[in-house]
């Protein structure tokens, strides 16, 4: 089944396009997860336990989670093993998984990133459950970055989100380069084109080649959205990174579909916010659940607002 | 000691700016390294053995090797473990190591990529030997990508090479975007600026913030080189990717320093070329050594040509 159709089904079942982002930081783990002076092996085990607890807390609330590879790679191969086990665990709990890896290299190299991060495993000791349903990619080497990922995606009902408009204002010095139609617009044209083949579009009318588009402001998001009608968006930055609801809304299609919205820190470290701390005491995972519930409702509202 | 000074010293000892790139592909391993129907664990062990053999063959010929992460990530955490062990082994044999990881994400995420790939390890079970001396980065999120890597580099005499002008013509659809002063030029201006702080420049006059600049043609390479006098270049694409000697030469400073030149496939799979096959029979590692010797001399000549 096509990635976009699998995702649409999951969104329909959970009735929200909210995605919880798992960015586990050792120093920020709740006390019961945090080891004292750990080895890298112990540290990786600790972030894995925390990630599993988040999955348990949100599995019935959202269609998908996004796992950020950087936070696992901080613990070397031990963290990478935890990354893959976390994906497998999320799959067992019925969640779709986006591997936030932002890889990007020339074609002859990208082929190997695709093998390691999206393609069906070629080894008896590696379960397909360990591979995510979609990954994020940096497409700045052009089509040759995405081509091997598209091949893998077609075979297995998987997908990808290519960076188009990042959430971080620091990126503006690059993405607003080039005048009235700046780099982010150019990237949006590329990504639209790369995902346009009839064999890449699902029943829901969306491609397996998506875009990461931050809702920077509503007008800009509308313009990008309207120019890429068949491209599914992954919208980062809701919550801690401060994207406004109207700008996120503008990333959905008029039918209220075509986007998923991610919140990471504002959900997984909800206990750091006084209002959740007050309600949940020391139960950081209860705070994750309540914050995810609230976020799921907000994302539902943002999608609905696009239909009005 | 500053990264650029350590590298300059190593180049002076080996009398060549040649870097051998390790891109191990399971299907291309010489028969004595290639397992039949391996598990991922066995496959990772096989590419590790091949990588170690290459290191043994070239350790006294070149100042540094470049290890491409993608080819190790193809075997999941097992490959990542092999990547780090290969770095440690190269260090034990007196080589500098460039980790070709091309990571790039917003600052709050990039901090964790820096921890996992360049910073001094914070764990008792991880030796600093396992971390490379420099990494490649994709700077398309702006300064926030490189900032945490610069912090790590300053502390430990390490460095980085930010993508400026890739070797793959597919990347032109992005890097030639923007008119007369296209994206690659804009990136070169950024990278120059990011590495310009007096505390980032070594005794040899080069920064710890370098650039990946393919020698696409001599005129272009000259122009980029002259505009970035304090930026060390990593020049990919010699050999298999077909960069011409004159274009590579143009990446050096007039003193014959300021660049290292990488060849991967043309050296590590030298046995696939009839002229090496003829001389070396089935000894693929002897072919690596002879090809590396030839490449070391070619790189020496290309550096010298810049002084004339």
List the helices and strands and how they pair.
Two copies of one chain form a homodimer.
Chain A: H1 3-14, E1 18-22, H2 40-58, E2 64-68, H3 69-73, H4 76-92, E3 96-103, H5 107-117, E4 134-137, H6 143-156, E5 159-165, H7 172-175, H8 183-194, E6 209-213, H9 218-227, E7 233-235, H10 245-249, E8 259-263, H11 265-268, H12 274-280, H13 284-305
Parallel strand pairs in A: 1-2, 1-8, 2-3, 3-4, 4-5, 5-6, 6-7, 7-8
Helix pairs in contact in A: 2-4, 2-13, 5-6, 12-13
Looking at the structure, what is the overall shape of chain A?
Answer: globular
Gross CATH architecture of chain A: Alpha-Beta Barrel
| CATH homologous group name of chain A | Aldolase class I
Report the oligomer.
homodimer
Distance between the termini of chain A: 30 Å
Low-confidence stretches of chain A: none
Which class best fits the helix and strand makeup of chain A?
alpha/beta
């Amino acid at each position: 089944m096509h990635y976009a159709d699998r995702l649409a089904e999951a969104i329909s079942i959970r009735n929200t396009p909210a995605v919880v982002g798992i960015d586990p930081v050792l120093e920020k783990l709740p006390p019961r997860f945090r080891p004292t002076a750990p080895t890298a092996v112990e540290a990786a085990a600790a972030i894995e336990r925390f990630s599993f607890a988040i999955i348990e807390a949100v599995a019935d609330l959202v269609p998908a989670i996004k796992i950020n590879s950087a936070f696992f790679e901080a613990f070397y191969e031990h963290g990478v093993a935890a990354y893959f086990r976390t994906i497998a665990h999320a799959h067992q709990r019925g969640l779709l998984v986006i591997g936030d890896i932002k890889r990007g290299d020339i074609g002859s190299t990208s082929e190997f990133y695709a093998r390691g991060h999206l393609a069906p495993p070629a080894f008896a000791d590696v379960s397909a459950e360990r591979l995510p349903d979609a990954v994020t990619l940096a497409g700045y080497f052009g089509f040759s970055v995405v081509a091997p990922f598209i091949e893998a995606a077609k075979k297995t009902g998987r997908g990808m989100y290519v960076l188009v408009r990042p959430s971080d204002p620091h990126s503006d010095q690059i993405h607003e380069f080039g005048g009235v139609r700046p780099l982010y617009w150019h990237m949006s044209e590329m990504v639209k084109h790369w995902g346009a083949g009839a064999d890449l579009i699902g029943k829901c009318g969306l491609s397996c080649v998506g875009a990461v588009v931050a809702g920077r402001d509503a007008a800009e998001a509308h313009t990008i959205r309207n120019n890429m009608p068949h491209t599914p968006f992954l919208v980062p930055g809701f919550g801690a990174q401060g994207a406004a609801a109207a700008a996120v809304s503008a990333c959905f299609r008029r039918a209220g579909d075509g986007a998923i919205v991610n919140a990471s820190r504002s959900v997984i470290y909800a206990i750091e916010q006084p209002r959740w701390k007050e309600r949940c005491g020391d139960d950081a995972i209860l705070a994750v659940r309540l914050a995810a519930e609230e976020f799921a409702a907000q994302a539902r509202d943002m999608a609905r607002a696009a239909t009005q």
